Amino acid sequence: MITKILLIDMLIITIFIYLLLVGADKCKTSKEIEIEDNDQMEQLKNHCRDKKNTKK
Question: I need a surface site. Which of 41, 43, 45, 55 has the fewest CB within 10 A?
């Protein structure tokens, strides 16, 4: 009985966390999206550069 209640509670918490994450992603302005894109591109460039340096 208690395990059923715990499973239902965990399912409800999981759904709320999912909705929170999806909602937070949709509230970004175009400037925030642009900044994130630039940060991701910079990280990819650094990662590729580091990979090339370690292969030598």
Answer: 55
